């Protein structure tokens, strides 16, 4: 029972991060129909920036702020400078460009920050709570992770549901032509969409790094899990990304806890294949079919 | 010059090697419905798409009250007061009815009065008011046409471009929509009627509501006259209008 509780709580904490990462993928997919394979590398890069700031003696929170602002700028710059020129061309071009970015950013990070493992501080305690003499593998840092993800999700929901800007962004995502005819500056909305996605991705990168080790490839497995979560949720649905992320987090945690941690990556792949076979449109997508 | 005069001069547009519009001149004036008629492929939709900035012309001019809009992007043409309702209606089905309308209202000049202006549209189209909170995909064809016209009006345009508003609608609904257009153009309460440029394959209905008609064939203007005169010209009707 104690193990079940621990495995479940660990899964929820991990799932929150996958959810944030999946959300970043969904934000970009919805507006530009591009799966951003560079998402993880972008997050890795901004996490390194935060690490530099923190190691220079600033607090964790200054580092967090720097990472999020850097994510915003990086996302906007990448959309404007790299993605815009290939938009409207064959879909594969954009995919290849994001893959190229992924490789380039990882190499650049290795050059700038070194390719050795470096430990990243956690803002809160990493020891589990003890309730009635039983150790629970749920730390103050996990609570912070979950709260941070929930706050960002609620902020995004509020933006998209209740503001004029959010309405314009959604309209631009659903129909560029109609939006332009209504005076919406679609180009700006796409840039903003990438920027917001990069902020959410940066947060995910920072949260997963907290109390752990970073190196240029540390986000690689998160990209896979985040992608599986996004596909499970239906790529088009922000709510689906959240549910997908938590589901993947829990499932992988059970696999790791009861079957063996070496099978986690295989399990993620099995889930991906199963989803694409049984319900390729995902659990929450409204559109009936998708080309894979 | 009255506000809302749309002048198209020598407009030439091509898609690759295919010339869709070939030196077309059209003037649409305030208080009038100008109908552009012709068979499928005559260049009617291309005319509207070039005017609204979705397609770039090879040559010619588009002017609104003397202001050149020829190569302006669609966003800027919309902001200048030209509302284009595209063929296939342009309802964003993933948004609710009210969100679709609000999107139009965001461009209108008096943002503070958005709620009042929305209320006015709901008054004009009661079926929309009943479904304001529903996703727009639940609307029928006629209701969708109401939604896009209402949304276009909320942008506060001086010129309304309509592409095949009668397509797929029952004759009774078509009459209703055209009656509404007539009301917008004649607007006697404020004296601020609009300019309407209407593209239609359904020539008979269009000529019954329009003031002026222009007939396109293979990208060129082949006839231009008062709507009643065109409707009475039997040869022209047989050759180009199919009724």
TrEMBL record, chain A:
Origin superkingdom: Bacteria
InterPro entries xref list: ABC_transp_permease (IPR001851), BCAA_transport_permease (IPR052157)
Subcellular location, principal: membrane
Keywords: Amino-acid transport, Cell membrane, Membrane, Transmembrane, Transmembrane helix, Transport
Record's bilayer topology term: Multi-pass membrane protein
Cited CDD domains: TM_PBP1_LivH_like
Residue stretches spanning the membrane: 12-29, 36-54, 60-82, 94-116, 136-160, 189-209, 215-235, 265-285
Record Pfam families: BPD_transp_2
Localization, UniProt: Cell membrane
Family: Belongs to the binding-protein-dependent transport system permease family. LivHM subfamily.
Protein name: Branched-chain amino acid ABC transporter permease
Annotated source species: Pseudonocardia aurantiaca
TrEMBL record, chain B:
Organism: Pseudonocardia aurantiaca
Protein name: ABC transporter ATP-binding protein
Single GO molecular function: ATP binding
UniProt keyword annotations, A-Z: Amino-acid transport, ATP-binding, Nucleotide-binding, Transport
Tree of life domain: Bacteria
Domain ABC transporter: 6-243
SMART domains: AAA (SM00382)
Pfam families, per the entry: ABC_tran (PF00005)
Family from the record: Belongs to the ABC transporter superfamily.
Keyword Transport applies: yes
Gene3D superfamilies, sorted: P-loop containing nucleotide triphosphate hydrolases
């Amino acid at each position: 029972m104690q193990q079940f509780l621990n495995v479940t709580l660990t899964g929820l904490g991990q799932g929150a991060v996958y959810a944030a990462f999946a959300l970043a993928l969904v934000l970009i997919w919805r507006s530009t129909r591009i799966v951003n394979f560079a998402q993880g590398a972008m997050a890795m890069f901004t996490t390194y920036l935060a690490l530099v700031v923190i190691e220079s003696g600033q607090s964790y929170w200054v580092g967090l702020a720097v990472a999020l602002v850097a994510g915003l700028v990086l996302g906007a710059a990448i959309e404007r400078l790299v993605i815009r020129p290939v938009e409207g061309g064959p879909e594969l071009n954009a995919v290849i460009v994001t893959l190229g970015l992924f490789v380039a950013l990882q190499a650049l990070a290795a050059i700038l920050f070194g390719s050795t493992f470096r430990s990243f501080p956690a803002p809160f305690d990493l020891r589990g709570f003890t309730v009635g003499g039983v150790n629970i593998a749920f730390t103050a840092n996990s609570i912070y992770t979950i709260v941070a993800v929930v706050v960002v999700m609620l902020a995004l929901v509020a933006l998209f549901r209740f503001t004029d800007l959010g309405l314009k962004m959604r309209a631009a995502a659903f129909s560029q032509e109609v939006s332009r005819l209504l005076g919406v500056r679609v180009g700006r909305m796409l840039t903003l969409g990438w920027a917001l996605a990069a902020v959410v991705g940066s947060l995910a990168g920072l949260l997963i790094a907290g109390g752990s080790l970073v190196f240029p490839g540390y986000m690689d497995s998160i990209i896979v899990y985040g992608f599986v979560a996004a596909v499970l949720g239906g790529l088009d649905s922000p709510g689906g990304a959240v549910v997908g992320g938590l589901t993947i987090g829990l499932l992988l945690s059970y696999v790791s806890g009861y079957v063996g941690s070496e099978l986690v990556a295989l399990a993620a792949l099995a889930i991906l294949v199963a989803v694409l076979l049984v319900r390729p449109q995902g659990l929450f997508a409204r559109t009936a079919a998708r080309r894979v | 010059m009255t506000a809302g005069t749309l002048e198209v001069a020598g407009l030439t547009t091509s898609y690759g090697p295919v010339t869709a519009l070939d030196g077309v001149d059209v003037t649409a004036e305030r208080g009038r419905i100008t109908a552009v008629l012709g068979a499928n492929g005559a260049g009617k939709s291309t005319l509207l798409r070039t005017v609204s900035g979705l397609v770039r012309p090879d040559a010619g001019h588009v002017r609104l009250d003397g202001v050149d809009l020829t190569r302006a992007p669609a966003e800027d043409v919309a902001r200048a007061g030209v509302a284009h309702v595209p063929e296939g209606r342009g309802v964003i089905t993933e948004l609710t009815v009210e969100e679709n309308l609000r999107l139009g209202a965001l461009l209108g000049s008096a943002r503070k009065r958005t709620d009042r202006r929305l209320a006015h549209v709901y008054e004009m189209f009661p079926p929309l008011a009943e479904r304001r909170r529903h996703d727009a995909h639940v609307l029928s064809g006629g209701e969708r046409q109401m939604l896009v016209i209402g949304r276009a009006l909320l942008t506060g345009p001086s010129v309304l471009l309509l592409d095949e508003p009668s397509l797929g609608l029952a004759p009774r609904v078509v009459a209703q929509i055209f009656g509404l257009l007539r009301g917008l153009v004649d607007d006697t309460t404020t004296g601020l009627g609009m300019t309407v440029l209407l593209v239609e394959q359904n020539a008979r209905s269009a000529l019954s509501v329009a003031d002026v008609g222009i007939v396109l064939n293979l990208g060129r203007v082949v006839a231009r006259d008062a709507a009643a005169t065109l409707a009475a010209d039997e040869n022209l009707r047989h050759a180009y209008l199919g009724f």
